[in-house]
Amino acid sequence: ARSPAAMRVLFLVGLMLSGASALLMAPRLASAPLARSEAPLMKEVTRIEITIENGEPLEKALQRLKRATNQVGHLRILRNRKTFENNHDKKIRKQKESLQRQARARRSRRAAERL
């Protein structure tokens, strides 16, 4: 039987050691598969980086960041995840997106043919 003071000291030492080992251990990759609701929609992570030139106005840099974010589609993905989307609505949205991509490709082909 140990005294309460000795137990408290042992507890604090154990707590400090566990905290220190967490700092020293390499982070583990998730070994268990993600649950279906946690599975990311994006297949790969796309980082957006902009470099601010010396003397460049902040508004201009924010515009470049906004443009880059829109090109990657982060905001669209966040908007889609905001509320639950059943399979029927998802199918309709994907068909609309496909039509928009096809129309954009047609416009760019026509513009390239004119040149």
Automatic annotation (TrEMBL):
Keyword Nucleotide-binding assigned: no
Any single Gene Ontology cellular-component annotation: ribonucleoprotein complex
Ranges of compositional bias, category Basic and acidic residues: 82-99
A GO MF term: structural constituent of ribosome
Signal peptide range in chain numbering: 1-22
Key words of the record: Ribonucleoprotein, Ribosomal protein, Signal
Chain spans, region Disordered: 79-115
Alphabetized InterPro entries for the sequence: Ribosomal_bS21 (IPR001911)
Record has Signal as a keyword: yes
Pfam name, any one: Ribosomal_S21
GO-annotated biological processes: translation
Similarity field: Belongs to the bacterial ribosomal protein bS21 family.
Name of the protein this chain belongs to: Ribosomal protein S21
Organism: Favella ehrenbergii
